[in-house]
Amino acid sequence: MHQTILQHRAETDIDPPQLRRTNRYPAATRRSGICAATAHCYASARSRRVRLGALVSLPMMRVPTSLSAAVLVTLLAACGKEVPKLPPPPLEVSIVTVQPRDIDISREYIAQTQSSQAVNIQARVSGFLDRRVYTEGAMVKAGQVLFRMDQKPFQAQLDAANAALQRNQAAMTVAKQNLDRTKPLAAKNALSQKDLDDAQGQYEQSAAAVEQSKAQVESAKLDLSYTVITSPVSGVSSYAAVADGTYLNPQNAQLTTVSVLSPMWVNFSLSENEFLRVQNDIRDGRLRLPPDMNMTVQIVQPDGSIFPFTGKITFADPSYNAQTGTFLIRATVDNPKGVLRPNQYVRARLKGAVRPNAILLPQRAVQQGAKGHFAWVINAQGKAELRPLVVGDWYGDHWFVSEGLAPGDRVVVDGGQRLSPGSTVVIAQVDGVPAAGASAASAASASR
Fold this sequence. Notes:
There is one protein chain. With 448 residues, the chain is an alpha+beta fold. The chain has four domains: 77 residues, no CATH class; 99 residues, conserved putative lor/sdh protein from methanococcus maripaludis s2 fold (Beta Barrel); 107 residues, Efflux pump adaptor protein, beta barrel domain (Elongation Factor Tu (Ef-tu), domain 3, Beta Barrel), CATH 2.40.30.170; 139 residues, CATH 2.40.50.100. Helix content is 33%, strand content 31%. It is built from nine helices and 24 strands. Strands 1, 17, 18, 19, 22, 23 and 24 form a seven-stranded mixed beta sheet that branches. The chain is elongated.
């Protein structure tokens, strides 16, 4: 209701005669720079406010300084005067100081484990598999029996070989005695030389037959021993490839596999481009390797945990793979508890290289524009300066900066999104520590 009364009174009321005399304000308008029309409007509005205040009692409010400035700017714009531009308040930023230092770097590669000695267990003789003795997938020791074959045919072959040996040994004994009788008679010309030669030849033939029989006996013994199939190494066993009762021959001689678990090989590949980049970094002094090139290999398991034993590089393939453009690198690591298993995917982390005098910059301090990466640097005058950068690899949540920064540069970390070249700033934090006087400066900026 009050609003209706105020609106009706404002529309019907007219200015008093003293307000229509505009020549009453020339000196004031000249001194303040406000035109007569504006002063008249202002006085008329003030007169209405006084009369309306008599009708409706309104509480008096203090006009804020900022509002008064806004009204003044509006009045100046109405008079056609140019509005003066106020300087923007300083922006609050956090900075870090560039400090080059030596950084121990590491590189990770997708790797796969491999048994250092994976032995295929095969049948050496043909015959029927009697039974499997070991437990599939269990750890086995060197010399442990894994399979047994039917021994009866091989035992029969051994017995036959022994019998042939005895027969030949008996024939050799007779031939030896005959030769011993022939020699003195031939010396007395009682027997001819031919008789002596025949006796000598018969003895030598029988002796050779004995040696042959001995070899056959040894062969039969070996064949019989091959019916008991043992593991030549200690390791983890695989499944049995054939079932009990299967006839084994050269075509299905594969029985199982035993893989040595310690030491374990870890294979990973290095691309040609990365290898050339490492060579260029070494040549330009951006990378320093150990004097003996003895890099340490740390194994990161699939769950992200670190394997307790480290390894060393023991082999590097001298040629590139024609299909992938990479070459193989092999590391050897101890695995006494068998935690790592063959063909397991892990990450190989190479450690030992150093990047001398490296400049690290937090990732949030580096921005990217149409011309590449850049950062905001605070110069000696406290102004923001855009600095183009050449960045390298990531290091945690930091960038390696190759070009664009110098020791002692102050780089904006937080607050850079609002900056423009030449912006005045207030430093709130330096290297994560609150800067002295930053809060006071911020308070003063807010009061303005």
